[in-house]
Amino acid sequence: MRHIIAKLLQDFESGFMNRRQLIENLAIAASAAAAITGTAEAQATGAAAIPKGPAFKTVELDHISYQVNDYRVTRDFYADLMGMEVKNDNGKTQCELWFGNNMLLARNHFRPQGGAAAAPPAAAAATQTAPGGRAPRKPVTSLVDHLSYRIYSWDTDQVKDELMRRKLLAENARPDTNGGPNYSSWHVDDPDGFNLQISGWAGPKDSTQKKG
Question: Which CATH code fits 147-209?
Answer without folding.
Answer: 3.10.180.10
